[in-house]
Design goal:
190 residues; Nucleotide Exchange Factor Grpe, Chain A, domain 2; 4 helices; three-stranded mixed β-sheet; alpha+beta; three-stranded antiparallel β-sheet
């Protein structure tokens, strides 16, 4: 069937189609043409597609702007949710590691006792070194002023001056900057 142009319509010149040009993939056929996508930063009413048309209805423009605002708000909310979920996951992982380290502290205590009594405890030393590499810090307060936030005083000797730690009964530990267990100490002074 041949389309005949109406009187007054311009006649389009026929262009021969090569067989390779006629074959398009389904994705190309459904993909939006570059002219269909408005340029970034250019309002739709000023894009070349709308060049000959009247300005959009103010109600439609207001509704469009509202939808764009809603979209931007949802994108920001999703980004905030993603960051919050990542932080929660990181915190949960760190708490799980902290719990494991807390459970291993008695093993380190036994290793300390073995060293005090002259035993060569290579396993305890290796465990302690591995945990130190991961962020475990042993508190060694001998000679330091007594700090109730980091020390549990289990023995006290009379003396002059400020309270000072003179002996550690059980080591205290800090895991990645947070106090896991206060050191049990003997204090002199105060």
């Amino acid at each position: 069937m041949t389309d005949v142009p109406a009187p007054g319509e311009p006649v389009e010149a026929e262009v021969p189609v090569v067989a390779e040009q006629a074959l398009t993939t389904e994705a190309e056929a459904h993909a939006p043409a570059e002219a269909d996508v408005p340029e970034a930063g250019v309002p739709e009413s000023q894009s070349p597609e709308f060049a000959g048309q009247a300005a959009p209805d103010p109600v439609v423009a207001r509704e469009r702007d509202q939808y764009l605002d809603d979209l931007r708000r949802l994108q920001a909310e999703f980004e905030n949710f993603r960051k919050r979920a990542l932080k929660q996951q990181t915190d949960l992982t760190e708490r799980a590691a902290e719990t494991l380290v807390r459970e291993l502290l008695p093993v380190l205590d036994v290793a300390d006792l073995a060293q005090v009594h002259g035993a060569d405890d290579q396993v305890g030393a290796a465990l302690g070194e591995a945990l130190r590499k991961e962020g475990l810090e042993r508190l060694d307060p001998v000679g330091n002023p007594f700090d109730p936030s980091e020390h549990d005083a289990v023995m006290h000797e009379q003396g002059d001056g400020e309270p000072e730690v003179i002996e550690v009964m059980r080591a205290g530990y800090r895991w990645r900057g947070r106090l896991l267990r206060p050191a049990m100490v003997k204090v002199k002074g105060g």
